[in-house]
Design a protein that fits this description.
By secondary structure, the chain is α+β, with helices and mostly antiparallel strands. Helices cover 32% and strands 24% of the residues. A six-stranded antiparallel beta sheet has the order 1-2-3-4-6-5, with helices on one face. Strand 1 and strand 2 form a beta hairpin. Helix 2 packs antiparallel against helix 3 (70-85). The longest helix is centred in the N-terminal third of the chain and has 18 residues, at 9-26.
Length: 202
């Protein structure tokens, strides 16, 4: 599919290569994976690890302790108070993949998160992914789980239905991939692009 609001495979690949080249210069971690000689079989990816607070809900402790002894109840309240004042941080591995959709001729953002030091261990759910998003309200129709078209493993992804409009708005951009990603990225586990990438669009 060609026309306004779309991006061809060759254009996507050229945009991706310049994006990754700049990422290498600023040590931002993005890389081009897959087979770029076959349409739709290469993608841009980055994996990062951050730490999130693991505070527990006091109400959950109260409910679970209602049938326990006073000593157990007291211990759990003290534990909850400790974690509230000294929050324990747990690792969150985040991986973003930007693919090209052959059906829609637009970029598509796939992503996953794992509450672990290792990818693939203890994956986050759709509901948990939404809780990591800041200042963006996502509905299940926009954020779904699907099989990664290249890797064949489950990933979360943002449905590409709105990408045509975004690409039309940024049609004068010298790098449509960067312009598009800077717009939709905040909806995927709070992905933000560094300001250095803006120069690729001018």
């Amino acid at each position: 599919m060609d026309g306004p609001g779309t991006i061809t495979w060759d254009e996507f690949l050229a945009n991706a290569e310049s994006f990754v080249e700049l990422s290498n210069q600023i040590s931002d971690g993005w890389e081009l994976r897959g087979n770029k000689n076959v349409s739709g079989q290469a993608y841009v990816a980055r994996q990062q690890k951050q730490y999130i607070s693991s505070n527990n809900n006091t109400g959950n402790y109260l409910a679970s302790a209602s049938n326990d002894s006073d000593d157990d109840f007291s211990f759990e309240l003290k534990q909850d108070l400790f974690e509230a004042t000294c929050p324990i941080e747990k690792p969150l591995v985040i991986e973003h993949h930007v693919l090209w959709s052959m059906s829609y001729s637009v970029p598509v953002l796939y992503f996953n998160g794992w509450k672990s030091d290792f990818s693939g261990i203890n994956p986050i759910s759709v509901e948990e992914a939404q809780s990591f998003v800041r200042n963006v309200e996502l509905r299940h129709g926009e954020l779904s789980q699907a099989i990664h078209p290249i890797l064949g493993t489950p990933f979360l992804y943002l449905h590409p239905c709105m990408s045509h409009e975004l690409l039309q708005i940024t049609s004068s951009s010298k790098n449509k991939l960067v312009s598009w990603l800077s717009t939709v990225g905040s909806a995927a586990l709070n992905l933000k692009l560094r300001s250095e990438y803006c120069k690729l669009t001018l």
